[in-house]
Amino acid sequence: MKKETLVNHQTPARPEPGNEPLVEPIHRSVKYTFPTVKEMAQLFSGEKDGYFYSRYANPTLRQLEILMCQLQEREDALATNSGVTAITNCLLSLLRQGDHMVIFVESYRPTRYIVRNLLARFGVTHALISVKDHDGIARELARDNTRLILFETPTNPMTWIADLDFIIRQARANNVLTVLDSTFSGLHNYGHYDIDIFLHSLTKFASGHGDVLGGAIIGNKELISRIKPDYANTGAAIAPDSAYLILRGLKTYFLRYRQQCANALKIALFLENNEFVEKVFYPGLASHPDHLLAKKQMHDFGAIVAFHLVGKEKEMHNFIEALHLFRLAASLGSTESMVTPAKLFFATDLEPEELLLGGIQETTVRLSLGIEDSDDLIEDLEQALRKANG
Ligand SMILES: Cc1ncc(COP(=O)(O)O)c(C=O)c1O
Predict the structure, then answer these.
(1) Domains in the chain: how many in total?
(2) DSSP assignment of 303-342, as one string?
(3) What's the CATH number where 201 sits?
(4) Which domain covers residue 159, as residue numbers?
């Protein structure tokens, strides 16, 4: 064999069975080969499991999908190349022209974009109401053509808690699909609730280090099989290298999440007693309007704290710019703490009355807690609050 041929047909050096690597290799191959045409045909007909092209399936992606099923207590999953891809693919696959769906003023802003701009162009209508509006939820779910409700809990950025029992009961009574974007609660909450589909941005707590995008659609086999053909044919799959980074991140997921939640509670308690803070929102605080519901539904209270600062926009800008450890960024769930001006980042598409419903004010700030030492974080907040107020 000539060397020009040799470099294109390299000899694999795979370990023998029993001598496996402790860390699984990343499967970068897009293509998978078959010894016979018959075996290739068997894969296409579904007679045999296997891989043929990574846009459909890949062992590294499958490892991530299986782990997510186990964490979220469901049968099947699809790993997508971002959180918004998970939302888009799920909705495009489960809805059709003439269907109606329910979303919330408290929903993640790109979710509102997808529903109000993209799906609307294809004849899917929606109601945009508050997650606290139980009458509105009951009314909208009872409409003849309502097919799906997409919600979050805790909500962004105010941390309202959606009443899962109520939403599920209403949805079941009306044969409506329940889809929970559970990015804020992580992969370990709500498995025992009768929720049809869990969506996640794996970019956040799952990967944990802010260096990779990814998403997940998790549900029973039947629903996932309805989504899979669109997922594969629209190129929604995550890249194997990204899936690997998320799998690696997940090894420390619980350590990080617990520390982030513990930091969030300490910070919320500190802020609650600070003269420059008007009101703090953290589901773990007894003063939070949904504290009891959060206690009933969640294993923990999350890593997001929101608060209204005393003063005006100017004081809010001064405060954010005076922080050293909390970095001004529009993400969450990383090892480092972050700060975000709520109205600017999450609500510029909302009308004033929708903003009012969502509870976001001019000086509302969202903190996403990292895993730093809480005393250092409190010191940073304390000096910035003092500086902001002269
Ligand atoms: C609740 C929620 N869903 C989905 C996403 C989208 O995730 P990604 O940035 O991975 O597309 C985010 C991102 O912030 C989010 O907060």
Answers:
(1) 2
(2) SEEEEEESS-HHHHHHHHHH-SSSEE-S--SSSS-EEEEH
(3) 3.40.640.10
(4) 37-250
> Does ligand 1 lie within 6 Å of residue 159's CB atom?
no
Same domain, 295 and 372: yes
What is the pLDDT at residue 148? 98
pLDDT tens digit string along 195-218?
999 999 999 999 999 999 999 999
Q: Which amino acid is at 188?
A: H
Greater model confidence, 60 or 345: 60
Residues 66 and 202 in one domain: yes
Residue 108: CB within 6 Å of ligand 1?
Answer: yes
Distance of CA 337 to the CA centre of its chain: 18
Q: Which of 150, 183, 184 to mutate to test the pocket of ligand 1 (most atoms within 8 A of CB)?
A: 183
91 Cα: distance to centroid of ligand 1 (angstroms)? 15
The widest CA-to-CA distance across the chain, in whole angstroms, is 79
For the chain, where are the E strands, in sequence order? 76-80, 100-104, 125-129, 146-152, 177-181, 197-201, 215-219, 277-281, 304-309, 327-328, 338-341, 364-368
* Own/partner pairs, 251-257, CB within 8 angstroms, 24+ separation: 252/208, 253/186, 253/187, 253/205, 253/206, 253/208, 254/188, 256/205, 256/208, 256/335, 256/371, 257/186, 257/188, 257/205, 257/300, 257/303
What order of strands is seen across the sheet that includes strand 125-129?
76-80, 215-219, 197-201, 177-181, 146-152, 100-104, 125-129
Give nearest CA residue, ligand 1 atom 9: 83
Give the CATH number of the domain where residue 296 resides.
Answer: 3.90.1150.10
Quote the tokens at residue 153.
């809990």
Mutate-to-test residue for ligand 1 from 81, 109, 203, 218, highest number of ligand atoms within 8 A of CB: 203
Name residue, tokens 């598409």. 349
Q: Domain end: 225, 250, 275, which one? A: 250
Query: Percent of the chain having pLDDT more than 90?
Result: 94
> What does the pLDDT read at residue 354?
86
pLDDT at 305: 98
The CA 379 to ligand 1 mean position distance, Å, reads 29
Residues 6+ apart with CB under 8 A from 275: 310
- Ligand 1 in reach of 215 Cβ (< 6 A): yes
The reply to whether 103 falls in a domain is yes
